[in-house]
Structure formats: structure tokens, C-alpha cells
């Protein structure tokens, strides 16, 4: 994917290493696109993990396959196919496997049915297309190093819209996620919120998978959010950690891949997995420590606390 | 008073609310000859119920008698087929901002990564759109601060201070229940609708939560309608009870309602009420889930008693 005849070398001079990375326009675009995706996927993913809709997110990611192959069949830009199928998928999951009135197992079964149908349609589109789907590899693994200025602009627009929409829905969505009966009694449209969030998730996944590919969406959607939630139960710090971890994972992965022969997606995914593993280990240690202290700590407590 | 329960509702409305002062001009809950139908089946009809301001009333009855359905009707979540429901002087559904509602529980998943205090906070601002600006000064900062104080006052009221900062999923059932009561309480409602708050608690916790609700009722002067299976943990605190069975209800004091004659008349079969030496009441012969009622109960559940999760 890289075009330099002789690979760049990494040294102990960090400033030189970084400026070497930033010399190339494609690297700058990759870092910016990766950063935008990390922020959006992190924030939307945080809510997804909290709502336990990871499987729905995975299903929406799979929508990129029929999306891209359908777009190729019709001769329209792949992005259109992505957004069309992710949007349709979000509605299908929302209608079919709505969060209300169904058990969790029934919902996941319905979501799985939607996923199977989508993959079958992608398969059909590929065989109708006849030829080899040229950029199947970029559907699966993305093309982070080939982000054009126009793509970067479009991605930033989508991400900004998604983040603003999420912020507007944040508290009712949180309420409906953890306590849907009480939220409904307060007059919140729980069902509509659930479908809106899936649509938002579809948007985020479609935008992200253009850059990182279908297979690697999860590195940025799940791992930073799940890690942050393992580390703290406080909402705002948890969101902050999610974004910070997402940026760390993307930029570190891109930086390492610049000096290596292996693709960026591999490093991004490996680093996010390592981050998740460390966070879980840390959470286990934290829980053990608080369990040891709990009997002593919970007794003299009531004096503390009128102001948090 | 109120020997004929069907006539009791108007008497209840005019009665000064026991020890809670005489401001009973508008009842907290007033149900007049209401009926609710779900899926073509009548859950109950000609239902009369009055809860005065500041009064503590238990709503009793067997599984599927329509107790949760009644709370939902009071919240305007289910339409009444006939009759009238007034809540805090307004039509059902219009006073919900002044009602603290505790749905039937539902414990939190152990993996829920939010603190107890966040759950309480959602009761205060969970229906506000947008995000709070994290300002520490000016009018908005003032609001953030007063919101926070209000949340902590509710937390302290239920005695959840020591564990309110821990993740909700790690807390015991009793601790979660207290925080959920704080959530229902945080907006200083005029009426608390509590759906089986004692369910799934062990006996000491049942007694403690019952005492807590009674304390809130007295100190905050809030009317409480509490759905329960077992009246015994509540006996020391109740002003009155309402008993739902066979699609009808009787209301009155504990002595007036929970006795062999009244319950036998309500169920239409002989019921025996025994009083243990410690004052506990045991109802014998109660038809728990009669076969011809079964479909109706399933429907009632399916139509919203339990939003499964």
C-alpha cells in the first residue's frame, strides 16, 4: 500500500520520527480520518455497550457488504450503498427486535436473522455482478492510507452530525437504556429513542467502515468503550477515557504501521485488544481491592457526601 | 367509617388526611367507577379508589388482579374504558411530572456500569434533552449545583449515602431498591406510585423499606400508593388499604377490608382471615390463579406489566 522505495527508519528522536510521519499528505489524512472516526465511534460505541446492543452494531457493520456490492452492481459510489443498507438494517433491527417487550435472547435471535439476510443479499449481489469485486479487500479491511481530502471532509461532516445528535438524545437515551419503564412513565418515547439510536449507530458504522473496513469497525466501536466502562462507572470520565483510548489506538496503530511492513488495521486492532485486556485485568484488580475494603468502608460512610 | 366499601371513596376524599393536616381539598388519586379493558378482556370495572394527600395506602390482591394495570392507568399509560380518573386534581397522564413512579422490578444487570447516584440523577433530568453544560458559575452553574444537591438529598433520605457512588449492578437488591425509591422521590412528587417495592427483598429489608416509605410519606407529606403481595410488613404504617380481586375493589382500613366477611364477599368464595398473636394477618382460601381468569392475566402481563429485560 505504501509507495516509498526504501522504508523510513525509526530512531530514538521522537520529534524526528513524528515529523517524518507527518511529511506525507496521505499520512496526515489518515491520522485525521482515524481521529475523527475514533471520536465518533467511541462515543456512539459507549452508548451501544451500555445498551448491550453490541450484536446489533456487529450486524450493522455487516451491512457494508451488501451495501458495497449492491452499489457496485448499480454503478453508484460505494458510500451510498453503505449508508442505504446500514439505515435499512437499523430500521429492520429496530422494528423486528425492538428493545421493548422482548427478551434479550429473542432480540438477538431476530438481529441474527437480519444479519443472515443481509449477508445473503451481499452474496447475491456479488454473483450478479459477475466479475471480481475489485475493492472487496477494502470493504473488509478498509483503506485508511488512501483517504482523499473530499472523503475526509465528508467523514468529518457525518461525524459532527452524529455526535451532535447523540448529545441531544443523551440523557433520555441513557434513561430509556437503563430504566425503560420509568422513562416511559415520564413520557419519553422509548421505542422511538431505541430506533433513533440504531439509526445513529448505523450512520457511525457506515462512516467508520469506509475507512477501517467491516472487519475492523469493532476495534474502534467496542474496545475503547468497553475498556472505559470497565475502568469507571462515572459517565463523564468514562466518555472521556473512551475518546482518549480511541485516539491512542488509532494514532499509535498508524504510527507503528508507518515504520513496519504490516498493515495499519492489524496494529489498530491488536492495540485495541491489548487495551481492552489490560482494562479488564485492571477492573478485576480494582474490584478485588474494593471488596476487601468494602465491609470497613461502608460503615462510617453516611457523614460524607451532600456535595459530591 | 366506610363499612360499605363501594361508598367509601367520597368519604375518603373529604376526610382530613389523618395526621398529615387538613389540606385534602384535592385528592391525590380519585378513581370513579373506572374500567380498563386489555385485548378485549375487562381487567376490572366499577373501580373506586381514593387516596388523600399525604396518605399511605396499600394496593393488595392476588397475582394478575390488575394492580400494576391500575398504576399504569393512573399514569395515563393505559386508557380507561369508562369512568373517570383524577390524579392530583388533573386527568390521568397530565400530572406525571408530579408523580414518582417505581415500576415493578427488575434488578439491574451486574454489568451495568453506572453509579447509584447516576440512576437517581436520571429521575431528575433523564427527560431533559441535550447535555448539561459543565459550568461552575452563572445561572447554569447554579442549576447544576442545585440539581446535585437535590439528588443527594434524595439519596440521604433513603439512607443510600454510603453506597450511592458504587456501580448499581454491584449493589444488593435492597440497596438498589432504596436508590430506585430515591429516583422516584428526587423531584419531590406529590404522589408516589410504588409497584411491589418489597418484592424480592428478604424479610429484614422488607421491614426496613416499608418503614422508609412510611417516613417519606410523613416527612415529605407525599401520598403513597404501594402495590404489595403481603400486607404484613406494612401493617404498622398504613392509613388504608385497597383490595383488588375478581375485577372489583374494596377499600377501607385494614380492619375493615382484611377480614373474613369482606374478602369472602369480594371473592365470592369463603375466605378466612387469621390473626396471629403478633398481629400478622394470614389470608386462607384465596383463589390464587383461578383457571377462568388465566388468559386475562397473561394478557395483562403481556400488555405491559413486565417489559421484559
Q: What overall geometry of chain B do the principal axes of the alpha carbons give?
A: globular
The CATH topology of chain B is: Rossmann fold
Strand content of chain B: 15-25%
Largest sheet of chain A: none
State the major sheet of chain B. 6 strands, mixed
Number of helical regions of chain B = 9
**Low-pLDDT windows of residues of chain A:** 296-308
Total E-strand runs of chain A: 0
Overall shape of chain A: it is: globular
- CATH class bucket of the domain at 16-214 in chain A: Mainly Alpha
- Name the average pLDDT of chain A: 84
Assembly classification: heterodimer
In order across it, which strands form the biggest sheet of chain B? Answer: 6-7-8-3-9-10
Q: Secondary-structure element sequence of chain B?
A: HEEEHEEEHHHEHEEEHHEEH
Low-confidence stretches of chain B: 1-24, 290-309
**What would you say the CATH architecture of chain B is?**
3-Layer(aba) Sandwich
User: What percentage of the residues of chain A does DSSP assign to strands (E)?
Assistant: under 5%
Instruction: Assign the CATH topology of the domain at 16-214 in chain A.
Output: ABC transporter involved in vitamin B12 uptake, BtuC
Tally of strands of chain B: 12
> Regarding CATH, which class of chain B?
Alpha Beta
